[in-house]
Amino acid sequence: SPIFGSLSFIADANPQSQQQQNQLVQQQQLQAPRFTTHPSSSGSIVSEGSTKILQCHALGYPQPTYRWLKDGVPVGDFSSSQFYRFHSTRREDAGSYQCIARNDAGSIFSEKSDVVVA
């Protein structure tokens, strides 16, 4: 009888310890975003009516999502796209643009890129 009690205890404890190990592994794998590409910090002059693309790219786990800010105000929602496109650029598109990369481990802000419409 004591032997069966011990076996029963081990069988009950095993799934829980496996779950704890899985959680530990998941925590170790989380990596906060870090930028590999910033929007051009030198700024850019864009012709009115033309197309312009800003890009930022970050590594991290899980894969970061991106959101763009214009003059500190969010433009759109977080998405998997690392690009911000200007179609038929207008004068009101001019401003200071910045990218946020976010995942479960944290969020970071890119350098700012000043866009001038000429």
From TrEMBL:
SMART domains per the UniProt record, alphabetical = IG, IGc2
* Top-rank taxon, per record: Eukaryota
Topologically, how does it sit relative to the membrane? Single-pass type I membrane protein
**Gene Ontology terms: biological process:** cell-cell adhesion
Q: Which residues form the Ig-like domain?
A: 33-116
GO terms for molecular function, please? cell adhesion molecule binding
Q: Where is this region: Disordered?
A: 16-46
Query: Where found in the cell?
Result: Membrane
Q: Which PANTHER family match?
A: IRREGULAR CHIASM C-ROUGHEST PROTEIN-RELATED (PTHR11640:SF31), NEPHRIN (PTHR11640)
What is this protein identified as? Ig-like domain-containing protein
